[in-house]
Sequence to fold (93 residues):
Amino acid sequence: MAVTYVLVVRLPSAGVESFQRYEAAVLPLLAEYDGRLERRLQSSDQRTEVHVLSFPTAVRFEAYRSDPRRASHAHLLAAAQAQVELYEMSDVD
Fold:
């Protein structure tokens, strides 16, 4: 059964460029774990982003999060001073 996650990222203005570099490095890895970026929303000031992600299982999501290539770019996320909220979501009938 597919799992949906919502990621909310809040950035200081000085962190936008570093976060964009982080995303450019890690988002391409999604496909290797059968993950999909269903939706990517950004505020007009680029300081808030919302991602809607889906994976076939929670195990695949955790494998993506544990990928050493993703971890090698964690310094960019730290430099961005991103405040990240992650939610596992499900459809409401």
Q: What stands out?
A: The helical segments are 16-26, 58-65, 68-71, 74-80. The CA atoms of residues 5 and 88 lie 4 Å apart.
